[in-house]
């Protein structure tokens, strides 16, 4: 009890604006990184399924590199070396952070998408071709819609992992949630209050994302039954309109 009494939540409250700003920065980095990672990951996943070597090998080497190196190293490399070399100067922590998260997330999403597509029975594509569909049409209208149902759980896990990994962007002075905690800890030389707050905020975000993923997973599951619309009988309509009293 003495420990709880010694905690000063007023320290966190005094820096509430910094934590709120950090919350929005973290959400922005995560969502932009994830959306970009899904788009690029789809292209890479399809590339790894291609029979053309000039498409397959670049996709494979990309995935191997970004899955085989730490995200922290990728962030520093992009922020301190790649972007300044291309543009002549840094574009700020946000551009570097989003770029690193997109490129890293795409590598993991590519493997999820590749595995999801390969999990569909080959008879589905054969049946589509027998109906006169091209390979692109069968992939778009037959294979991908079925594979998407199987991809949702691992893609959801990737979103939550990316949310937590976004805290690494604080090494390039990103004003995210972890950065806010470091500022408060440095200002007061107290560590329980700011880092407990950081942990609680991340926990709340992962809880909300987890609920959304669970809903989407149930919505697109094969056993999902949409709620029936309530029908009004002729007698009920008459009562509503004041008839039949």
From TrEMBL:
Alphabetized Gene3D superfamilies for the sequence: MetI-like
Cell location: Cell membrane
Transmembrane regions: 23-44, 65-87, 195-216
Source superkingdom: Bacteria
Keywords: Amino-acid transport, Cell membrane, Membrane, Transmembrane, Transmembrane helix, Transport
Bilayer topology term: Multi-pass membrane protein
One GO term of the biological process aspect: amino acid transport
Coiled coil region boundaries: none
Chief location bin: membrane
A Pfam family hit: BPD_transp_1
Every ABC transmembrane type-1 domain range: 23-213
Gene Ontology cellular component list: ATP-binding cassette (ABC) transporter complex
Gene Ontology MF terms: transmembrane transporter activity
Similarity annotation: Belongs to the binding-protein-dependent transport system permease family. HisMQ subfamily.
PANTHER family in UniProt: GLUTAMINE TRANSPORT SYSTEM PERMEASE PROTEIN GLNP, MEMBRANE COMPONENT OF AMINO ACID ABC TRANSPORTER
This protein's name: Amino acid ABC transporter permease
């Amino acid at each position: 009890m003495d420990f709880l009494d010694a905690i000063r939540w007023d320290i966190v409250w005094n820096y509430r604006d910094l934590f709120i700003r950090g919350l929005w920065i973290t959400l922005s980095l995560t969502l932009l990184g994830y959306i970009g990672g899904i788009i690029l990951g789809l292209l890479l996943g399809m590339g790894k399924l291609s029979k053309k070597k000039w498409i397959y090998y670049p996709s494979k080497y990309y995935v191997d590199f970004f899955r085989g190196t730490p995200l922290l190293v990728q962030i520093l490399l992009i922020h301190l070396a790649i972007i300044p070399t291309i543009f002549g100067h840094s574009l700020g922590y946000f551009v570097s952070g989003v770029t690193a998260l997109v490129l890293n997330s795409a590598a993991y999403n590519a493997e999820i998408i590749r595995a999801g597509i390969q999990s569909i029975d080959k008879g589905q594509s054969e049946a589509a071709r027998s109906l006169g569909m091209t390979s692109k049409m069968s992939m778009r209208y037959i294979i991908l819609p079925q594979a998407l149902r199987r991809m949702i759980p691992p893609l959801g896990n990737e979103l939550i992992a990316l949310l937590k990994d976004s805290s690494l962007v604080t090494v390039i002075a990103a004003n995210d949630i972890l950065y806010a905690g470091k500022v408060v800890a440095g200002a007061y030389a107290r560590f329980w209050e700011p880092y407990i707050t950081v942990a609680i905020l991340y926990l709340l975000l992962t809880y909300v994302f987890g609920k959304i993923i669970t809903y989407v997973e149930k919505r697109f599951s094969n056993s999902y039954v949409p709620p029936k619309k309530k029908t009004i009988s002729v007698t009920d309509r008459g009562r509503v309109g004041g008839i039949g009293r």
